[in-house]
Write a structure and sequence with these properties.
Elements (H helix, E strand, L loop, with lengths): L1 H15 L16 E10 L6 E4 L5 H15 L4 E3 L6 E5 L9 E6 L2 E6 L2 H17 L1 H5 L2 E9 L5 E6 L8 H12 L5 E5 L24 H13 L3 E8 L4 H6 L28 H17 L4 E5 L13 H10 L8 H14 L3 E5 L21 E4 L5 H11 L3 E3 L2 H4 L23 H5 L15 E8 L7 H8 L2 H10 L7 H17 L19
Parallel strand pairs: 2-3, 2-4, 4-6, 8-9, 8-15, 9-10, 10-11, 11-12, 12-13, 13-14, 14-15
Antiparallel strand pairs: 1-7, 5-6, 5-7
Helix pairs in contact: 1-16, 2-3, 5-6, 8-10
Keywords: Glycosidase, Hydrolase, Signal
InterPro entries: Beta_hexosaminidase_sua/sub, GH, Glyco_hydro_20_cat, Hex-like_dom2, HEX_bac_N
EC number: 3.2.1.52
Length: 529
Amino acid sequence: MKNLFLTLVLSLFCMTMIGQDNTSALIPMPNKIINGNGAVFTVNARHSAITFDNKELKFAAEKLQDIFKRRMSENLNISPTGNGTIRLIIDNSLEHKEQYSLEINNKGITIKGASKGAVLYGVITLEQILMGDICMTSQKKIREIYIYDKPRFEYRAMMLDPARNYLPVESIKFFIDKMTLFKYNVLQLHLTDDQGWRIYIEKYPQLASKDHYTKEELKEIIKYAEMRNVTVIPEIDIPGHTCAMLSAFPEFKCEHKSATPIELGKSVDMMLCASVGKVYTVIDDIIKETSKIFPAPYIHLGGDEAAIKYNWAECPRCQKLMAELKYEDPSQLMIPFFSKVLKSVKEAGKKAILWCELDNIYMPANDYLFPYDPEVTLVSWRGGLTPKCLELTRRHGNPVIMAPGEYTYLDYPQYTGDFPEFNNWGMPITTLETCYQFDPGYGEPLSGQKHIKGIMATLWGEAIKDINRATYMAYPRGLALSEAGWTEMKNRNWESFKNRMYPNLMNLMKEGVSIRVPFEIEQKLENYR
């Protein structure tokens, strides 16, 4: 096993030595690059300094200072004033909030961005230039290059699931640090499910699992993420996936389930009863408290995999409510359920995100499971249903986030016989190449993609017990998906991506990140001897 590990690391190292230049580590690939004419800028602490024109850029300036110290052993001064040779500037003329430019010539480095996050992205791109062109970097030199860049999609998310297996605050911060390197800008935290309730609600302390996040801890995560241009969005999953909630409020079970015991970690397929009035009062309180903690404009409320036929379809109270509303199918109870819930969301000043459910979990499917409010953003996730979901969201006017299971479910195995080795229900294999082939627009003309907000890579937590397993499952596939979210299709290329990936994987390993070495896509090691 030790020899295999050393072989894999050596293989990875050898691959990083091939084709080195100032674009050989750029992930996601910028959308416009102009190579220079051979000019070089030399970094020297005696003659180089970092200046920034806005106090909001202090974090980016400090990060850049750290980069030069680590990569070139040059400790540059930083200053909010002056005319340094390395300048960070907020440029309000740039149209997209994450648009930036990076210009390097023999006179210096200028990074301009429409926002502090955009400038930070310019800094991140600069570090990848240094990382790829290591021979020049070792000489403290940077080749001339001009990059003008903005994302294809505004919403580029990763999702962690501490509801299934709790992740400490420091682990989540560690994960945020790494996703930032590849220009992800949203972290969705799946905070509640059958196995646990991880957010402390002051009005209902009985909800909280033994391991949970306090209000102060969540605010700490949010602030940490915000500095790195990452918005944290909470997910409170209802009306299904609610065994943890039902263990605290057994009176919220459907009538015929009232005597059914709940064992956290084992009980599933139970729902909040649609006919119990207090359910909506408690949900309203939860939404209000959660909304005060999270400044994000969105709150995710699940809405997926509701076991309606085992709950609402058999509940005498729900049957009575169906008769009163003249409904023929119990799934129609989702209409009044979410009508009340969305009212709470609106009153809290938020917008809702829901997992998109259709009238069948496989094709053929014809329409939504129930009519979604046009203001609700939907997430397309079920394998094989995304083209239909894309069509329906376009027709009904719902914004959509693309997270199709066959491309973006990073808890699935990466290779035959690979992890997860437990809680694997027969998961399909999602290879690195499969992830890279993902086109969030599904080949539709631009007019048919206008309602697509972006993408989300998900890490469901049933088989992810700690952050090391989370990053192992996330990388390198998360690199591929970052390019799906950022880079225009015309600028994407699988062969190019493979080469650009290796310096980034080596860098992650140096930073103590558990990754999977994608040995199956490479030439044999003897080709490099």
